[in-house]
């Protein structure tokens, strides 16, 4: 005790306990990167107070809005698996690596986006572009709508994953209309060339990598 000048075990009987000042709680890296027009909502509490989170729009988000790149640790093995999230991989230096997010300080807000179970609830498409993974909106997203993602067709092949939705009743549903857009739907911002699908656009844009 500084007042008594004595070394004590526990509280000082004369002067009482110290007043403890706690550190300010700082949000994780992933939460700090969340854009201002998006919000996290707790959808469910599991055992041990583990939260199931979803990302929701706070305002209208236009079609063809790109988010990313996805941030995660490059790993040859996936250490953190969540069946409600997409498994993502990238091609780096000739090798295929998982984008692993074992905790919220290893990634950005995109780690919270849940996978879409069917075409109706999908709002985002995931694809690889120049060694990075991006999510792009496939339709306007209204306020209070959850952002949900599924693979682009070519990226599904790269991931060796199913390129179709499997509904809860095990009925196969076609891949969402990302591959069925009109020919002029996807425009290169560098040269204004038009493409029918995300996959064709992302392949073309690798030519403009130095400009991106």
UniProtKB/TrEMBL annotation:
Stretch forming the signal peptide: none
TM segment ranges: none
GO biological process, one term: regulation of gene expression
Highest taxon of the lineage: Eukaryota
Domain C2H2-type: 186-212
GO annotation, cellular component aspect: nucleus
Family matches, as Pfam families: PRDM2_PR
Keywords, in A-Z order: Metal-binding, Transcription, Transcription regulation, Zinc, Zinc-finger
GO molecular function: zinc ion binding
Residues covered by the SET domain: 38-152
Protein name: PRD15 protein
Organism name: Pterocles burchelli
Lineage: Eukaryota, Metazoa, Chordata, Craniata, Vertebrata
Gene symbol of the encoding locus: Prdm15_0
């Amino acid at each position: 005790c500084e007042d008594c000048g004595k070394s004590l075990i526990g509280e000082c009987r004369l002067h009482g306990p110290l007043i403890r000042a706690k550190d300010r709680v700082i949000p994780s890296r992933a939460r700090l990167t969340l854009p201002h027009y998006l919000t996290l909502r707790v959808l469910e509490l599991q055992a041990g107070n583990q939260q199931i989170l979803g990302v929701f729009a706070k305002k209208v988000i236009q079609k063809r809005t790109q988010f990313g790149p996805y941030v995660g640790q490059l790993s040859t093995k996936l250490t953190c698996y969540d069946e409600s999230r997409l498994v993502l991989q990238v091609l780096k230096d000739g090798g295929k690596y998982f984008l692993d997010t074992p905790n919220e300080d290893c990634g950005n807000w995109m780690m919270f986006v849940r996978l879409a179970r069917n075409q109706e609830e999908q709002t985002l498409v995931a694809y690889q572009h120049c060694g990075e993974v991006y999510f792009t909106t496939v339709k306007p997203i209204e306020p209070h709508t959850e952002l949900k993602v599924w693979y682009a067709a070519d990226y599904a092949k790269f991931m060796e994953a199913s390129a179709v939705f499997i509904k809860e009743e095990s009925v196969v549903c076609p891949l969402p209309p990302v591959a069925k857009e009109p020919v002029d739907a996807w425009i290169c911002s560098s040269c204004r060339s038009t493409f029918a699908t995300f996959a064709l656009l992302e392949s073309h844009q690798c030519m403009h990598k130095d400009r991106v």
